[in-house]
Amino acid sequence: HPAGAPSADLAKKITKVGIVGAGLMASQFALLFVRKLKVPVVITDIDQARVDKGVTSIRSSIDELQAKGRINADESNRLQALISGTTDIADFSDADWVIEAVFEELQVKRDVFANVERVVSESCVLATNTSSLSVTAIGADLAHPERLVGFHFFNPVAVMPLVEVVNTDVTDEETLSTAMVVAKTLGKSAVITRDAPGFVVNRVLAKLLGEAMHAVETGTPFEVVDRATAPFGLPMTPFELLELVGLTVGAHVLDTHHAAFPDRFFESEALHRLAEHGRIFDRDSKGKRRGFDKKAVAIVAG
Ligand code: 3HC
């Protein structure tokens, strides 16, 4: 049975956070953890270069906050001191909350948690930021799958108010309660979702993004789909949203939904090719869109 109602009384106290994966998403939520939980945050990845890149990105975000006057010098120094990087997972041994945001490949995530479980204590909560893999499948080989929960952030992490907390059939009440309290402490509103492909948000978004890609792949120009969908009142058009989440991630999300529900979702081969190319829009040096990238248009036309 899924865990019952979460309760703040059951939540575990978090005194140290471990983050696996030092990419774009992880660097964004690392900053949030350090600012809001106010505890040491250690970030790891498969090599020193990736770790350094992630840590540098977090450090410059802290500098930016200070430059904008959002935090003072003391706070900035405090945050900088709480952030560290490592290539040695043993540095997670005293963490009470470990979250991963590595490549969206089931076996990669399973291996990550197998390694994490070797070093952390039995009471450490494990969380995955997977966007569409099964949390149950990610935890299948764990010695203690009851302490695994989905904790799905949205881009841009600092701005988007929601976290989806994914409750598997074996997640226990302490874990679920801890996740809800962590989300609240991070300043996010949380919803508890079932462990179903795409949870709630990506299930809805995959429909929109998949249909938009299908329209261009079947001959409707990018401009037309973009203009036609703009009046929906969403802050971004489907193609802007695809660039924001990353074209590779977007293509992966569509693949996962198509695999789960082939009659309901499109996969997009063209989106994979666009991901290789790296962009849909032609942008100026400030990132403002000038129009659609000519090569992207040619790629979709085949
Ligand atoms: N990274 C970090 N911060 C960003 C950002 C980015 N890429 N883009 C904008 N921001 C910040 C700005 O710094 C600004 O913060 P401030 O007020 O503290 O200075 C704030 O967001 C508002 O920015 P702007 O006024 O410049 O821009 P907009 O009002 O146009 O808002 C937006 C930008 C918040 C990104 C808005 O367009 C939006 O909400 N877009 C939709 C995003 C969305 O749907 N995300 C979900 C994607 S799905 C996902 O992530 C799931 C995954 O699993 C696939």
Automatic annotation (TrEMBL):
<feature type="domain" description="3-hydroxyacyl-CoA dehydrogenase NAD binding">
    <location>
        <begin position="16"/>
        <end position="195"/>
    </location>
</feature>
<feature type="domain" description="3-hydroxyacyl-CoA dehydrogenase C-terminal">
    <location>
        <begin position="198"/>
        <end position="282"/>
    </location>
</feature>
<protein>
    <submittedName>
        <fullName>3-hydroxyacyl-CoA dehydrogenase NAD-binding domain-containing protein</fullName>
    </submittedName>
</protein>
<comment type="similarity">
    <text>In the central section; belongs to the 3-hydroxyacyl-CoA dehydrogenase family.</text>
</comment>
